[in-house]
Amino acid sequence: MLSSIKKKNYSLIILGLLLWAPICIKANNFDSNYYYSNQFLFCLDKNVEQLKINKDNDVLFTNNLSLNIFIQEFDIDHIEAWLPNSTENDREGDIFLNRIYRVYIKSNSSLSIQQIAQELGKFDFIHSYEYERIYKTNSFIPNDPMINQQCSLGAVKAYDAWSLWDIENGDMPGDENVLLASVDSGVQWDHPDLVDNIWQNLGEDADGDGKTIEYINDEWVLDPGDINGVDDDGNTYTDDLIGWDPSGISGGDDNDPNTQVHSHGTHVAGTLAAATNNGIGVASAAFNSSILPVKCTRDNNDEETINDGYPGIQYAAKAGYYLGCQDCNPGTIGNPGDESPTFAIIQNSWGNYGFPSTYEQTVINTAHQLYGAVVLASAGNDNEDLDINDHYPSDYDNVINVAAVSCNGNKASFSNYGSAVDIAAPGVGIMSTVIDGYESYDGTSMAGPNAASCIGLLASFHPEMDNDEIIERILNTADDFIYDGMNENYQDNFGNRDLGHGMVDCFKAVGFDIIPNLSYSFQDLLPLDGDGDSNVNPGESAELGIYLYNEEGWTDATNVVGVLSCDNPGINIINNTYNYGDIAAGGFGEHFENLFTFSISDDIQVGDVEFTLNITADGPGNYSLDKDIKFPVSINLNQQNWPQDFNQVQSSPLIMDIDMDGDIEIAFGDYDGFLHVMNSSGQELPGFPFDTGDDIWGSIASADINLDGSNEIVVCSKSKHLYILDINGNVVLDYNANQFLMGTPSIGNIDSDEELEIVFGAYTNSGDVFAINYDGSNVEGFPYDLNEKMQGVALADINGDGLDEIVFSTESENFIGFIDPNNGNPYSTILYEGLDKFKSDPSVLKIESNFYFISGSDGNKIYSIDLNGNIVFEFESGAPIQTSVGFGYVDEQTVGLFFGSQDNFLYGIDQNGLLLDGWPIDVGGKINVTPAISDLDGDGQLEVVAATDNGMIAAFNLDGSVLQNFPIIIGNSFIGSPAIVDVDSDNDLEIYIGTTASLVGLDYKLEGDVVGYWNMYHGNYKRTSFYEFDPNMNCSSPLLGDINCDSEVDVLDIMMVVDFVLDVSFPFDYQAWSSDLNSDTNINIFDIISIVAIILD
Question: At residue 1009, what are phi and psi to the nearest 5 degrees?
Fold first, then answer.
């Protein structure tokens, strides 16, 4: 963390250090979770001569006699300089970095590290000792594959920042003298996407050929002509041609930071400064700045262990300083020497917890104050509050502490947080270089280099700024949008924020004082023609006003001009230019006249269509703005006033003229337990919504149950109650079943009286089948004790007695069967017992005189069982089938069965279980809701409408091709089956369907037909799930009103139409056409009147 913004209370720590200094006790407490148990550090008194360390025949000795005795008595295996390239200048107070040594304890020692360290601390030549922290890299690789993208570049606004360079004329972003150091596990510096940006230390160019690496024998190598054993550039490191390796294979320094073992540092390096605009791999915000590889992990160690991070920091700092000032003297802290025009930006993607170390803080202070470095460190990956658990080096003064967020600004679930954090950067799904390739990593290890790369870009644009100015600017320009409506748990009402100043913003950091920052604010979109609603539909024209905002804190914008374009072939822009004039910083550019205009093709796929507004504007001086602003324009098929928000609408809507006043009503339930009845404009009818007391899962049924001339509304609730209501919301019946009612009620005739009955199943393991009358009395013999869990049932007259049998499929014993009411003595027949649960409601198909009972199972199969219990077919998909079947006329000999599966396919098969041509269709998401069928486009053939769990609604022609304007992306998961009806009597069809958050209404703009189609859940208003198909019914002389095709319109035809109106039977293709005499796509009382008129004439 940076001392200038430090919020923690370190008073106790400071007091402890003051007490520590004169009596030379240790500065950190030992914890084996955080510190090595076999090595520690000590510092000699400043007046004591530096150690000369030798080893002869495995005997370790130094130039200090007392220390030699200690070595033998206390099992010391080895001593080495911690920072071997430190000088007398590298100090702070009494801590001289060139007098700090690392002690290794023999592995077989019986003494604890505490005992050994405390004994060493008793010598008067020892200034102090500290336990050495175990540092681990702050990244982890998810176990799922990541998509190949770099959302981080857009998130930190690198693209906008690059526009401040004149790239077209060769002025490229970045600067080779800006050093971005990967102090990490090493860098595969010959990686094809890194080698062009690897720093070449020309101060060590002994042969004077202008390079320190060469391509020899098909490989990149350190230039042999430059390796002379001399510290040519005076930075205290010999032959550091491209970087340094303080760790080597097992601990020794060398001049090659390459690694073929550990990818972490290579990933960091690619994020820092991968070569950009080179036609391969990935890009970096710093574009063409230089990578300084520093290898701090020994090749024989675990990748996550950083052995020599602080020697690495010291090297990087000196390399940056001496790059621009080889003969300079940096001075000391408190007594600064020469300033260098160059400095290093040092990324440390590693850390651990514990107590602060004076030695480590001194390394960082000298790097920052003497050598002008910018030091960054990753905050850590444990979702820890850093106000409770200190993490180093990120918590040290003069360190930019970087937390991780996603590209959209949400805190990464793993990222540490707290007042010690200075800034946030993208750290989720970061694609970068690894050894011999590319991979996507998550971690604050990735967030840190994203922030550092932006700092590198800033430093290349403002080479006159020193490290403190760079740091102040990068923090003060961070985008605090990450606190707007997100990350609410990481801020309070007093201005305290746990993710720093905000997300790093390259663009603002570089350009806020030289250029305006114009952005899209909002739009006014109005149709110019069409169907009279406020939605812009396919085939219409529209006008568009775009309002701009010039962000406060940037410069004023003058001469602002916007030019509109769109790459979608379905959009034709007519008026594309508008002059906004001048827009002051913090002001809006209004657009209410001379609006953009465009036309839309009939066949465009609806949804959000991307438009681009090219904005040009002038700023102060020689800088001008030229940027493309992309924004969506909604081209939709939304029915006016829809969608409307509700909590989980699994209930497929009932859409009918319930009160028979000529206007359609829409009835459905939600998970809040409300029954809604609305008009086509989305307004609740008086008396609604009605509270059933708990979730409504099933759909609503309706019919004139008591034959009084008025329809009733029937709903089941998880509250264990079934309700009958009238159209005014009055409760006609409240029936308590004392069992969960999760399914759809069905209405039919199962006894000898004329009135209708309501049938429904219970969703418990010991569930009953209920059949009740209008007055709430049980039909004789009911409830029937089936002892099975089920949702909905189907009704059909199977035995030809004029009364319905009750068809069920169950989840407990996995039955398909039916109940015969048998005049008050009901009995059940089990037709099939499966191996897997039947979670879809059953459907009944009648072909001529044969009945087929159809249901899908969790065993990935859909079954068709005949009346004798024989399997007609079992069709297998790739996943569980939880939708029911929708039926549709294919041709004179074929009925189509349509259903979805959780394998992402929509299936179409015939009555024999054979796939229809063009099916199945991959829809890209699980289908858990039953499809609906109608003739949406009026071509005389069916279309199938299905919806997925990932928010897509699709429609397909009979041949499997996609219907015009589809698919449509809604966003919320679809959980209710679609219903297709002409709601507003305009001859085109509307589709209504429930999602987890709304009821959606779509207005398809072609004239269509629903008569004779399975256009709603369970096929009809009574929800009987019964479909009749007669392949022999081929009318050679079609005639309106001649329903039975006997060439005469008579009372027999009237009786058939009455059955259709009452949902007693279901019309197939010709019957549907012949019954709809007034061609209003509905079979109703008006068609009966028309047939009567024909007969009377």
Answer: -150, 135
DSSP 653: P
Distance CA 308, CA 315 (A): 11
Torsion over CA of 153, 154, 157 and 161, rounded to 10 degrees? 70
Strands (E), 1008-1053: 1026-1029
- Looking at the whole model, is its pTM more than 0.70? no
User: Quick check: helix, strand or coil at residue 242?
Assistant: coil
Q: Which residues contact 163 (CB under 8 A, 6 or more apart)?
A: 625, 626, 627
Residue pair 793/800 in contact by the 8 Å Cβ criterion: no
Residue 251 — very low, low, confident or very high, per pLDDT cuts 50/70/90?
low
pLDDT 10s digits, 726-759: 999 999 999 999 999 999 999 999 998 999 999 9
Residue 1018 CB-half CA count within 13 A: 32
> How many CA atoms lie less than 13 Å away from 958 in the CB half-sphere?
18
Complete DSSP assignment for 941-977: S-EEEEE-TTSEEEEEETTSPBPTT--EE-SSPB-S-
Cis status, amide bond into 967, omega within 30 of 0: yes
In tens, the pLDDT along 451-490 reads: 999 999 999 999 999 999 999 999 999 999 999 888 888 9
Tell me the two tokens of residue 154. 């857009």
Rounded CA-CA distance 782/805 in Å is 13
Q: Which two tokens stand for residue 404?
A: 């991780």
The structure tokens 């806020």 sit at: 512
Tell me the DSSP string of 733-758. EEEE-SS---S--EEE--SSSSS-EE
**Cα distances (Å, whole numbers) of residue 266 to 257, 293, 311, 448:** 11, 9, 19, 14
What angle in degrees, to the nearest 10, is found between the helix axes of 309-323 and 358-365? 20
Got the DSSP string for 420-447? T--EEEE-SSEEEEETTEEEEEBSHHHH
Mind listing the pLDDT tens digit for each residue in 62-98? 999 899 989 988 989 889 888 888 888 888 888 899 9
Judge whether 473 and 297 are in contact, CB under 8 Å: no
Res. 18 pLDDT band, cuts 50 70 90:
very low
Assigned token pair, 966 = 């589809």
Closest CA to 1072 of 1020, 1010, 984: 1010
653 Cβ contact partners less than 8 Å away, ≥ 6 residues apart: 666, 667, 668, 699, 700, 976, 979, 992, 993, 994, 999
- Is residue 416 a contact partner of residue 381, using CB atoms and an 8 Å limit? yes
Using alpha carbons, select from 104, 122, 98 the residue that is nearest to residue 50. 98
Q: Which two tokens stand for residue 650?
A: 């699994």
List, in sequence order, every residue forming a beta bridge with 933; answer none if it has no partner.
944
Confidence of residue 1068 (pLDDT cuts 50, 70, 90): low
Locate all alpha helices (DSSP H) within 103-201, ordered by sequence: 113-120, 151-155, 158-162
600 to 14, 609, 821, 966: CA distances (angstroms):
70, 11, 58, 15
